[in-house]
């Protein structure tokens, strides 16, 4: 890819990190209107015929496609290489959102799937990678079902009333990879009215009263914390 990567900034400005790989930009692309891609093995790493610019929906001019018709099944694919220093580390593949249901393959192996088009999700992909180019394939399903959460997107595909074109339909938004999460344990003690962490890495969005495991990235140092949370 010779053109500048769109949306080159780290998607989480409060957690900017030095080592990450932005996967926005040109991807291979295909409509699958008869839903035959799975049966024909499109996830095996083959090259798809079209091109699209991620993170823009195919209905928009910036995507390079600008097709406002309905396509309930679409596919994305691209090749990528991880930086040399990332070998033998955990690597997370992050999507800012994919509307609506999605399945991800790395080098022809299914990594995971997600339902819901409005929140980020991630997969651990290190076990599926190998040195040199790797193939990332994404299948997206976005049915025109009025019972599916869709905000003010028209379920008919055409704007009417306060509803507008389905411009978020089947879009892969903000795809990037980061390396080496750290597992930490967060414990809530109701008797002592305290939450205690056993690491010096920062923890955010702790829910009091729950025992949970959090994955946290390196690079954000504070002192070990003990906070009163039940007052």
Order of helices and strands: EEHEEEEEEEEEEEE
Q: What is the name of the CATH superfamily of the largest domain? A: Galactose-binding domain-like
- Could you name the ranges where pLDDT drops below 50 across 5 or more consecutive residues? 182-231
Helix-and-strand structural type? mainly beta
The CATH topology of the largest domain is Jelly Rolls
| CATH architecture tag of the largest domain | Sandwich
Overall domain count = 2
Task: Report the portion of residues in β strands.
Answer: 35-45%
Q: Given the structure, what is the number of helices? A: 1
In helices, the fraction of residues equals under 10%
Summarize the structure.
With 231 residues, the protein is mainly β.
